[in-house]
């Protein structure tokens, strides 16, 4: 259960559609579901506004299924599973777990994606086509968290006119996620154009001296553009989560 679910229950009580006792029963769930191999935080959504997300890498399909069951048993109807390959997704489906698999994002979603309720639009920019997998994770995560998202691919600084032709989208965005490998220059350029926060995502795309994304990471951390923050290498999820927090800050739309 997340904060919006709790608010819906409270509204139902106020409207006389749910009794106070029924509300107590709905929310009276232990803070942790102990599965032995996992301690599922069933009250994270109430505390933070976003329920726990399952990181699929390193977990078996059976473990993921067990965690999904625990979350759904605690009242969580919408669940995001990140870093899940197609083989594991197939195994999970064969176990009877109902979810939609998004192959390009390497992620699964239990339940329906919500209608956007953020203050504005999140713009996701990639420097090159090779960065799309990270961008897809960011886009899906942002939409899962209730944001309107536009994605522009292959707009790196090697052909800067490709980026400049999207000036309208840059000006309209509430938050921008700039994703780049190689030397990681894109976020600095975007930071010099945008009036909103820019979240930089270094990727492991590049030749040897890219060092698996470390070169791009260091370039982004040392950006001379104001308003640029940086997440870890290939961390599209983390960038989208932070962007969603910014896009849902109280204020005028």
TrEMBL record:
Query: Which Gene Ontology terms describe the biological processes this protein takes part in?
Result: 'de novo' IMP biosynthetic process
- This protein's superkingdom? Bacteria
- Annotated SMART domains: AIRC (SM01001)
Quote the Gene3D superfamilies the UniProt record gives. Answer: 3.40.50.1970
Q: Give the signal peptide range.
A: none
The protein's GO terms of the molecular function aspect are: hydrolase activity
Q: What is the lineage of its organism?
A: Bacteria, Bacillati, Actinomycetota, Coriobacteriia, Coriobacteriales
Domain PurE, residue spans:
120-252
Entry protein name:
1-(5-phosphoribosyl)-5-amino-4-imidazole-carboxylate carboxylase
InterPro entries per record: P2CMN_synthase_LarB, PurE_dom
